[in-house]
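WARN no homologs supplied; continuing
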Amino acid sequence: MSLHEFLREGGEASCRIVSRLGHLIQSLDVSGLGSSFPFNPAGRRSSWRDWDDDIMQLDSSPLRAADITPDLKKQFAFLSGGRGDTGSPIIVFPEFPAFGEITDGAFHNVLTYLTSVPSLSSTGVGFILVIDRRQDRWAAVKGTLLRIAGSFPGNLQLVLVLRPTTLLQRTLSDILFKFNKDEFKMKVPVIMLSSITELHAYIDHSQLTKELGGTQEYCHEKWISHRTAIEGFALMVKKTAQILQSFGTVLAETELPNDIQATSVLLSTHTNKKDKMKEDLLVALNQGSRLLESINEPVVRDPDHNMNQDELENLATVQRLLSQLDETERAFDEFWVRHQTKLQQCLQLRHFEHNYREVRALLDQVSEKLATFSEVGISPAHADHIFSELSTYEERVCEVLGRASSLACDGDDMIHNSHYAEDSVQPKCMELRAVSENVSSNLRTRKDHLLKAMELHHCLERASKWVDDGIYLLASQPVDKCQSHEGAELALKELEHHLDNAEQNQLSELSTIWREYETVLNQQFRDQVEKVFQKQVSMQEMFDKRRVSLKKLAAKQTRPVQPVAPRPEAFIKSPLSSPAHIAQQERKCSEADSGNSCEKGNGQLQNGDNNSRHASLSEEEENLAVLRRHVMNELLETERAYVEELLCVLQGYASEMDNAAMAHLIPAPLQNKKEVLFGNMLEIYHFHERTFLRELEQYTDCPELIGRCFLERMTDLQIYEKYCHNKPRSESLWRQCSDCAFFQECQKKLEHKLGLDSYLLKPVQRITKYQLLLKEMLKYSKSCEGADDLQDALTSILGILKAVNDSMHLIAITGYEGNMSELGKLLMQGSFSVWTEHKKGHAKVKDLARFKPMQRHLFLHEKTLLFCKRREENGEGYEKAPSYSFKQSLNMSAVGITENAKGDNKKFEIWCNSREEVYIVQAPTAEVKTTWVNEIRKVLTTQLEACRASQQKAPDQVFQFPPVSSGPVSLSPFKSGQKSFKRGEEKKAEPCSLDADFLFFTRSPLEKDLPRVPITRRSGRATPRRLASKAGTRPPCRWMPQRSMKDIPAPMSLLILTQRTTAGRSCVPANIR
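OK structure emitted
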């Protein structure tokens, strides 16, 4: 059944059922309800018509017993339940002395209600009124008749009046009734009765109450109670039916939702409302049953009891209401079953569609993932790793295929169970099976191709190893030992033994390989096969040549030779024995016979020793080439493994942190911390996988040139600094969450034996591995073309490692309020013992005792020197790394150094403020001290050159030297020296003007690294007297510009003083002593 047909049939059934509910409500006289549902089964009309009139009569009046209960309880009129001979209902007006006090409204309401109680068939005949006024007067009789004639709402058949029994009143009533008969305007006969006996002539005594001489039992309170209950029950039935119809209309007009949640909510809401309807129906049925038991109580108590006509009508009314309520419940249940089935099928369809979208997306994801698995691989290890990953991923593929198959079976069950959406479900089932078959076929194909590729890779690996071992064997055979008969035979046996394994290791013909592995051979794989095959051919040619040579040596007859001691100088000085000459002769050698000597070029090598030396050089070069290839292979293999490990971590851990299915396993401290945990690992992976690995592979045939690749990508390799800076935060986060279920689950899926922390350390290990590999390559490439590039690459890598190490220390500094980026490049850092001296007046004061130095960690920047205190931290890993508390800083433009202090070769001085502040620094070793002094020299010299360059831009500048003393000198921006001087002596100092020619500094052995710096002078010569000064220290130098020039300031630490030496005049930078 199609969806359209199901909805159309369901709509028609809903209309039929709701129409039945509407008919019930219409029969209960609930205006306006059910009018929109004109359809009504013909079979139901006759069954309801029998009691429609009773219910309509029951509800035709807006009055209810509960509304006029006080007036009814006065009992000035009541329905006794009796009937006349024609079935007319009897209304009794008993003795009621206060009848005249009853208001017209109360009188009218009571009579209106009493005439509405009997059925329409009974009221159509007319009512019989019995007025009992035997104990009253004629005036009461007249008043009653007048009020009845004026306001009785129903049809009258007969009025029987029991007139007053006293003689006077009876006589008076007979006379006055005849004269006033027309005044009553009665359309029916009014009969005056003198006694009860006369009443029995008109009405059977069984239809009269005991007060009127009859046998009928009547209880007015009980009658009021029954009427109130019946009317309340009828009202409940009407309201229930109205609610059911409204609810049915809502259900019939409800549109099916398009998502699971809305459908589930709708089904739940409708079910709850249905349950509430059922509860209301049950309450109504229980109330009707109790009312029915109450009406039947006299019969149950006395089986011979005869009910009056009103009681029988009440009983019938309640029974019919209960019957109709049961029928309504059955109709509603029938409607609900269809509606619930429709909603359940809709929910089932929405689940199917949701699962279909999920499974379809998973199938697409699996198909895309399978497409990423290479069918070839670039190496045996790579192919094995891909196959292992594919085998692991096969479980995921089988899981997805299982879900797809199960979902298709669910769709088949829906179709088999006549689901209304069969036209929508069936195509989806067919598509799921088709896509699943495609994915399964793709998986099998890739596994078969990988197995084939792995087989070929291993063949290439065996062949390549066999070839490399053969070349290594040729390189490892000493040429001098092969000159003997025994040595040649031993070497020949080694070659034969290696060739014995050729069948198991060497490649077959290329045509055979092309034919057997056609399905997996791409261009890169073909080139790899051809390269290995070419190496195999070349190795076999080398073996053939070596075998021929060894066989000749082994077959050569030995002859006695007189031992002669050769002169070593002869060979050394011979121009024919130089490596260049040998190489030239090698190119001129004939390939026809390796045993023949070279023909004429610069000369012939006729001596057997020269041939041996020539062969030795070639063998050594071959050995180095083999070793370079080994280093290159290790570099490439470890690089590929490194890239695969990074990808494994990123996919197996980092991507899983974004997987919603794994979110519940991630602890709170780890949430949204992926960048902290992994740093810029993704950036590192992209660089190596997309760029660096591919460029390294281009140098496979020329490994000695690999330094160029490193130099070209040195800037990109600096991304490791960012990773190393983040490593402490990453390790701290890992220790905090290492035991969480998320990491354990990821490690289980990846089948890793080591935890994530081991893989997070891989980038740090990799950047340090490069310098080891470059050292090895440089070791075997010193005479090659790319040796300089290798050396530069090694230096640059070591520089990156040093920068990373220094920056790791730098970020551990605490308490520095300035901007460290303004300090310039970090040049050096290290721990020292420091003493501090302050000069106050003529006294020197030390901050601490001489034998208690301060332990300080110094950071030398281009512009500033920082003093910090090292603090060891407790913890593990990076948390155990020290931190540094900032203590003070010195501006490098205002410091000077003294290389030797106190005669200790490990101490030097850093001072400023004219040596008012002196820092005696003791290095751990003399070498450390020398390195630091040289680096500080470079900084100060750079500042000096910068100052000179800026001053040369200003023409005609005059440099004024102060007097020169033979004592120690300094280059401080302030007044310096170890002795005080008098102002009068300062005035005696004559300034010296230097001419424009250059005077270079002479340097002591300790100052051998200091560059020669020229100083301009105006006069041709400066006498010793003018350059000398009296005892004491000189004042600082001053630049004296000419009158026409503006002042040009210079860094005070770079001003130059002269020093007189025994050898003559020399200018020495006094801030570097």
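Residues 1-11, 27-61, 557-609, 956-1073 have pLDDT under 50 and may be disordered.
OK
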